[in-house]
Write a structure and sequence with these properties.
It comes from Enterococcus termitis. This protein is of the alpha/beta class. It has 2 domains: 1-52; 54-190. Helix content is 34%, strand content 32%. The chain has 3 helices and 16 strands. Strands 3, 4, 8, 10, 12, 13, 15 and 16 form an 8-stranded parallel sheet that branches. It has a 6-stranded parallel sheet with strand order 1-2-5-9-11-14.
């Protein structure tokens, strides 16, 4: 009789241990699953932010963001200086939406919640080479020359302290260099 009770008690204890272990694994799996979802959501949100805009005061970050594998909008958060030429390349669409118009923006300013410009920044570069169609420099100052090799170049409230040279007459004709009182202090020519 005692051996039957010990066997029953042993079986019950083993069952409790097995069920407890299963329950623990299940909770760990749920926690891992939840953590994975949170991590995926965080990564996804982070990736969306990265793919939709690049915001920095570091020349190497901005240069990469303006490149072929960069972003549709690039924003400086302070004055920035490049030691070598920077090329704006690749085809991008407004707000990163491939069904939207081809558009690319360099924002050299900060704004408040009401979209009022609160600061403007200067990009100093030997030459900014524009190969992206419909590239728009908004506010701030570019100290250096700009070579335009694409249609639809726009200066919107921006100042260029240097020359703007167009590779073809077609590019010059399609450009807007005086939107919102934008100005070029140097020569505007066609190669």
């Amino acid at each position: 009789m005692i051996s039957k009770k010990l066997i029953t008690l042993g079986t019950l204890a083993a069952t409790v241990l097995v069920l407890g272990a299963c329950n623990s694994d299940s909770n760990d799996t749920k926690a891992s699953s939840s953590d994975s979802k949170t991590e995926a959501t965080s990564t996804s949100s982070s990736m969306d932010a990265v793919s939709s805009a690049s915001v920095s005061d570091k020349p190497e970050v901005l240069e990469k963001a303006l490149g072929e594998d960069g972003n549709w909008i690039v924003a400086a958060t302070a004055d920035v200086t490049f030691d070598s030429d920077v090329t704006v390349a690749g085809e991008f669409h407004d707000k990163g939406d491939s069904s939207a118009d081809i558009y690319r923006k360099l924002a050299l300013y900060a704004q408040d919640a009401d979209r009022k410009v609160t600061a403007e920044y200067t990009m100093t570069v030997p030459e900014l080479v524009v190969e992206s169609e419909n590239f728009n420099i908004v506010n701030g100052t570019v100290k250096g020359n700009i070579l335009v090799k694409a249609n639809g170049f726009v200066l919107n409230g921006a100042k260029v302290e240097g020359n703007v040279t167009f590779e073809k007459e077609e590019y010059k004709t399609s450009a807007t260099l005086d939107k919102e009182d934008a100005e070029v202090t140097g020569d505007i020519t066609v190669q």
